[in-house]
Amino acid sequence: MMKMRKAILAAAAAMVLATGCSSDGQQGTETASAAQETEAAETTAVSQETTAPETEQEAAQEETASKNYEDNFAVSAEDAAAFGRQVKAAVAEKDLEKLADLTTYPVYVGFPEGSVTVENREDMIALGADKIFTQELVDSVGAADENALTPSMAGFVLSDGGTANIIFNVRDGKLGIAGINY
């Protein structure tokens, strides 16, 4: 971004110098016009920068979210791994908002004391991070190999092989968390 700004400023300076040497009395107008063009170019560059994904994870999330899948078997290994990494990151960070954003609703949550069906994002957040991110779930999902996921009718299972896991699958053409088990 700094290189782009320097290039824009250098071009503007060159325009100012070139127009400053004219003999037709338009120097002030041309200088102001060059300054306005520079400001407009910088504004465009900054707005493009702020709309671009900030991290590789956000870029992968945008790319995966933009795809439409027919079913679980139509998801490439790379796309399944990318989505699995997003889920693993949310769990590792114990970021319930991020996990809720990766979830499709309604979602099954099988707590040891009884299962519930969570109907929407707000209800998911209301369960609380302490209830969702048990140490068993954090450990199991953290140890899962997202590069070895295989599709099934139910979807893809992120787990170290234990009881606690997160299942994601294709629903309405998109990947999303479909179940959390403890």
Structure in words:
- The protein has about 180 residues and is of the alpha+beta class.
- A hairpin with a 2-residue loop joins β4 and β5.
- The chain has 2 domains: about 50 residues; about 130 residues, Roll (Nuclear Transport Factor 2, Chain: A), CATH 3.10.450.
- It has a 5-stranded mixed beta sheet with strand order 2-1-5-4-3.
- The N terminus is likely disordered.
- α3 crosses α4.
Output the helix-strand order: HHHHHEEHHHEEE
Stretches where pLDDT is under 50 for at least 5 consecutive residues are 1-51
Distance from N terminus to C terminus (CA atoms, Å) equals 46 Å
Strand order of the largest sheet: 2-1-5-4-3
CATH domain class name of the largest domain: Alpha Beta
CATH topology of the largest domain: Nuclear Transport Factor 2, Chain: A
Q: Count up the domains.
A: 2
- How much of the sequence lies in strands comes to 15-25%
- Count of helix runs: 8
What is the global morphology? globular
The helix content is: 40-55%
Structural class given helices, strands, pairing? alpha+beta
Question: Radius of gyration from the CA trace?
Answer: 25 Å
Number of strands: 5
CATH architecture of the largest domain: Roll
Mean pLDDT: 79
Major sheet details: 5 strands, mixed
Layout of SSEs?
Blueprint: H1 2-20, H2 27-51, H3 56-65, H4 77-92, H5 96-101, E1 103-111, E2 114-118, H6 121-127, H7 129-132, H8 135-143, E3 156-158, E4 165-171, E5 174-181
Parallel strand pairs: 1-5
Antiparallel strand pairs: 1-2, 3-4, 4-5
Helix pairs in contact: 1-2, 3-4, 4-8
